[in-house]
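FAQ: What does the model actually see?

It sees only this:
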Amino acid sequence: MKEKAYVLIDADKSQSSSVVIALSRKPGVLAADVVWGPHDVVAIVEADDIDKLIHLVQNDISLVDGIAHIDTCLIVTGH
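And it is asked to produce this:
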């Protein structure tokens, strides 16, 4: 079973749309949307196992230009 997570993203000023575009091009990102609320962007990501999920978030997503901070919430439904 693949591992999934919500990634809650705080973007730099006026960078939300460009963050969503960049994330949408990355393998493992199922969806990315600009949102209203305490965060600017929410992404759903998926990987084959927890180690690959961590690698995706730490080494791919967190390095996208315009991202100031991320919080990751592992999805446990269905486990």
